[in-house]
Every structure is written in C-alpha cells, then in structure tokens.
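so im writing up the methods section and need the ArsR family transcriptional regulator record in one place, dumping it here so i stop losing it
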Amino acid sequence: MPEAAVARPGPEMATLFHALSEPTRLEILTHLESGEHRVRDLVEHLGLAQSTVSKHLACLRDCGLVGVRPEGRSSWFFLAAPALLADLLGATDAFVRGTGIGPSLRTHHDAPDPTLERSA
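--- predicted struct ---
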C-alpha cells in the first residue's frame, strides 16, 4: 500500500505555521469561529492591549487566515476559510493525539547552548 503523499514544504507553508505557532493568534482564530469581530471586541475578550491584538491580526491577515471587512469607521475581522482552518486544526489535534506524546519546545528553549558556555 503506497504511503500518502506529503506536500513539499516551502516558504508559504513555513509562514502559515509561524502564524499558527503563537498561542494568542490561535486564541484569536478560535474566537473568530463564532463570527466577525472588531478589534475592540477582541481586546475586551482577550484582555490584551489594542496594539497587541492589531499586530496579531495583521500577521493572520498577511498569511491569509483572516479577512477584514470595513464598515464605517470600524473594521470587522473574520476567518478567511473557516472549513479549511477547522480541517487543519482537526488534523493537528489528530496528529498530537496519534503520536502519544505531547509536543514540547521546552527542550529546545531550555537546553544550554554549548557555544555560549564559558571556561572556568
């Protein structure tokens, strides 16, 4: 039985995964599943500064995960492809569960860098 073809990673895929790697951006995407929201709605819900929310929305918009609809002086943000995003997040959940381990970057962040060690 042939194995499923795996898409060849490229810069677009890396950009998408970078956008999805930030917990706040994932929370914004989850919140937008319920429908369109203004920045001020997201600020209130997340308890973050307006500039922080705007920065994350710009990242999500730049990589095509979020769209924006102007209305008067407000901008309404929405999921650009809700069904595809749900599929991606569902596949990610299945991958995490299927491996039997909890992925962690802790070992990468906490490991001492041998090139930075000083001689005693």
